[in-house]
Amino acid sequence: MVTRTVDLRSDTVTKPTEAMRAAMANADVDDDVLGVDPTAYRFEAEMAKVMGKEAALFVPSGTMGNLISVLVHCEIRGSEVILGDNSHIHVYENGGISTIGNVHSKTVKNNSDGTMDISLIEASIRDPEEELYYPTTRLICLENTHANCGGRCLTVEYTNKVGEVAKKHGLKLHIDGARIFNASTALGVPVSKLVQAADSVSVCLSKGLGAPIGSVIVGSKSFIAKAKRLRKTLGGGMRQVGILCAAAYVALHENVGKLEDDHKKTKILADGINQIKELSIDMSSIETNIIFFDILEGSNVTVEKLVQFLEKHGILVMPASSSSIRLVLHHQISECDVQYTLSCIQQAVQLQVENVRN
Ligand SMILES: Cc1ncc(COP(=O)(O)O)c(C=O)c1O
């Protein structure tokens, strides 16, 4: 029986550390809906400072952080947002910005590096003062790192260029920064510089940073005041939320420094997988903690059998399509786990190839 578990399904699967549990147990709390939870106050102030914005707001999830941000920027009926066709907001958030917010989406093709061509963004901007038929563009959304593009990073230069386009046309810029600390680590730039051009950013605490629950949105004081009201509307106002903020505070201080190591281990694992004849990875896409690998056509290896074999050996992964698998590393994956995973993938592939031959 296998007792070891290597959970590579996502970086959301981490368990709170002892330090987080201790901080939660000892947190000084009060009613945050009344605005008097000292731990939430301290954490939000710290996040605003780190991100270089005026104010911050703790929210239960990244999905709610994005939804609130889009709705605040698009509060006028008939608003449209420009966003990537492969972005998390567009693909995985239940279409909430349209079903709940009445915001219309104008998608622009995401390139494999997570960018959208600036010329395509600019060509997508619509102004009904010139045309009776169109919704009004009010917002552009970027995603950094871009999850579906394999955790690739948008640079300061690119983000600033999109910011300039937004400014030129009187639009706002929101960044889905679920993994923005992974981007800042990989690019070697302070996170505040990376989001300087943005009017708002949503940052997940429960992904690379390893906190058990929560996200934070940051922006101007007036943006956060509106966001707070919407958070309450959506049922996201939580009472003694300092319990969660205490763990998030530890995550911020303990785990940002571990991301570089996560990225190194990701490269080692990706490199090893890429050397298996039947599998392939675009190594240029490995910038942070996410790997998508493909099974080569005609190799007789199947996603289903590979996933089953790995699961039997305690390794949990996420099928991404009928011929590809996603792996995500995090601070609770050791070098030893990486080597174990690699050797299990090698065995699984070899077994499937031999079974077909026999
Ligand atoms: C890029 C990105 N944005 C937003 C989210 C949503 O976060 P949550 O699961 O906390 O709602 C995710 C979740 O995986 C994500 O990967």
TrEMBL record:
> In which pathway does this enzyme or protein participate?
Amino-acid degradation; L-threonine degradation via aldolase pathway; acetaldehyde and glycine from L-threonine: step 1/1
Q: Where is the Aromatic amino acid beta-eliminating lyase/threonine aldolase domain?
A: 7-294
What InterPro entries does the record point to? ArAA_b-elim_lyase/Thr_aldolase, Low_specificity_L-TA-like, PyrdxlP-dep_Trfase, PyrdxlP-dep_Trfase_major, PyrdxlP-dep_Trfase_small
Tell me which residues bear N6-(pyridoxal phosphate)lysine: 207
**Keyword Cell division in annotation:** no
The biological processes this protein is annotated with in GO are:
glycine biosynthetic process; L-threonine catabolic process
* Alphabetical UniProt keywords: Lyase, Pyridoxal phosphate
Which is one Gene Ontology cellular component term of this protein? cytosol
Swiss-Prot/TrEMBL cofactor(s): pyridoxal 5'-phosphate
Its Enzyme Commission number(s) read 4.1.2.48
| Molecular function (Gene Ontology), one example | L-allo-threonine aldolase activity
Listed under catalytic activity are: L-threonine = acetaldehyde + glycine; L-allo-threonine = acetaldehyde + glycine
Is the keyword Lyase assigned to this protein?
A: yes
SUPFAM superfamilies registered for this protein in UniProt: PLP-dependent transferases
Database matches in Gene3D superfamilies: Aspartate Aminotransferase, domain 1, Type I PLP-dependent aspartate aminotransferase-like (Major domain)
What does the record give as the function of this protein? Threonine aldolase involved in threonine degradation to glycine. May play a role in the removal of L-allo-threonine.
Which protein family is it in? Answer: Belongs to the threonine aldolase family.
Q: What is this protein called?
A: low-specificity L-threonine aldolase
